Amino acid sequence: MIEVEVKGDIEYAIRQLKKKLQLDGIKKELKRREYYEKPSEKKRRKKAESHRKLRKAIWRMERES
């Protein structure tokens, strides 16, 4: 559960909440669930995500050596 303590400035607390939601991935998930996603589109999206993660891991390994 995401919590933000408000100590006066509400605008600051809202910015902190939005930042925490974005880092946690909730904002992205809500946007994705806003509309129905066909199974073929879901499969394509997951495949693209896995390729992105793999490329990122390979890039990190190359950078370390």
Q: What this model shows, in words?
A:
By secondary structure, the protein is mostly helical. It has two domains: 1-34; 37-65. Helices cover 75% and strands 0% of the residues. It contains three helices and no strands. It has helices at residues 10-24, 26-33, 39-64. The radius of gyration is 17 Å and the shape is flat. 0% of the residues are buried.
Key terms for this structure?
mainly alpha, 65 residues, 2 domains, 3 helices, flat
Mean pLDDT: 93
Q: Number of folding domains?
A: 2
Q: Low-confidence stretches at least 5 residues in length (pLDDT < 50)? A: none
Helical coverage, percent range: over 70%
Question: Count of helices?
Answer: 3
Rg calc: 17 Å
Oligomer designation: single chain
Strand content: under 5%
Number of strands: 0
Shape: flat
Give the termini distance in whole angstroms.
38 Å
What is the topology?
Blueprint: H1 10-24, H2 26-33, H3 39-64
Give a quick precis of the structure.
With 65 residues, this protein is mainly α. The chain has helices spanning 10-24, 26-33, 39-64. The chain folds into 2 domains: 1-34; 37-65.
